[in-house]
Design goal:
CATH architecture: Alpha-Beta Complex
Keywords: Transferase
Number of helices: 9
Helix content: 40-55%
GO molecular function, one term: transferase activity
Domain Aminoglycoside phosphotransferase: 54-215
Organism: Micromonospora sediminicola
InterPro entries: Aminoglycoside_PTrfase (IPR002575), Kinase-like_dom_sf (IPR011009)
Structural class: alpha+beta
CATH class: Alpha Beta
Distance between the termini: 68 Å
Largest sheet: 5 strands, antiparallel
Strand order of the largest sheet: 1-2-3-5-4
Length: 258
């Protein structure tokens, strides 16, 4: 190949953006392409299969060469960020609730999800770690653990995203343009997705429920806020994130005492 031809085959990009990176996974943005690198191919298997099953818009899969999955960028912007006020409209939040309902009404995926016993064991282990390492005050852990345990009641399994965070939901003109990061998708409690979406954004819970269009037990949403926060703090600390940042998991736990 000549030098001129070689230059034509190269596409310049302004920069490579590190979206998230830790010892298990990394996501890079190169122009309009996201490169997801995962040490566990099973998570990528779930993500690819889930995107083929769900009735929601998802990123286009450009190619997969393990451990890398290349996805096209979605139009629009994320609904928000944990720890930051959301600038999205009430209509956009309601649209996210409607998207969750559409997903939860879909046929279940053919792989198992986490059951009550597994979640109870995880909660026990994480609370013990938080207390042993004096990460949080005992009364804060005890209060939130009691709340979290109320979520572990019988539920009818739904197809859940499993990590339905605000920064995984993209919107434009108050409409959902796509949902990303499906590696945690499974059968589970539909209210877990609604709680994950509104974690740290309780002021938008009414908009989400209105869009969801079904009776929702708000006490169980709050229970899942406690559960998700308690289960996540150790992982965040060990992977270089700060759950004590304003508006994040520790603040969520403190707000539960109000």
């Amino acid at each position: 190949m000549t030098g001129e031809g070689h230059r034509r085959d190269n596409v310049a990009v302004e920069q490579i953006e590190v979206v998230v990176a830790h010892t298990e996974r990394a996501t890079l943005r190169v122009g309009e392409v996201f490169l997801k690198i995962d040490t566990d191919p099973a998570r990528t298997d779930v993500e690819v299969e889930a995107m083929a099953l769900v009735p929601l818009p998802t990123p286009e899969i450009l190619w997969r060469r393990p451990p890398v999955l290349a996805l096209a960028a979605l139009p629009g912007t994320a609904l928000g960020r944990l720890g930051e006020p959301s600038t999205a409209s009430p209509a956009a939040w309601a649209a996210a609730g409607a998207a969750a309902r559409l997903l939860h009404d879909a046929p279940l995926p053919p792989w198992p999800g986490r059951g009550h016993d597994e979640l109870a064991a995880q909660l026990d282990g994480e609370c013990a770690w938080l207390l042993r390492h004096e990460v949080l005050p005992t009364d804060l852990v005890t209060r939130n653990r009691r709340l979290a345990e109320t979520a572990l009641r019988p539920w009818t399994p739904a197809f859940i995203h499993g990590d339905f965070q605000v920064d995984h939901v993209f919107v434009a003109a108050d409409e959902i343009t796509g949902v990303v990061d499906w590696s945690e998708a499974s059968p589970g409690d539909a209210l877990y997705d609604l709680a994950t979406l509104t974690l740290g954004h309780r002021e938008h819970l009414a908009d989400v429920v209105a869009g969801y269009g079904a009776d929702v037990d708000l006490d169980l949403i709050r229970a899942w806020w406690s559960m998700r926060s308690l289960l996540g703090i150790r992982w965040l600390v060990q992977h270089g994130f700060d759950p004590h940042a304003p508006g994040c998991e520790v603040d969520v736990l403190r707000a539960q005492q109000a």
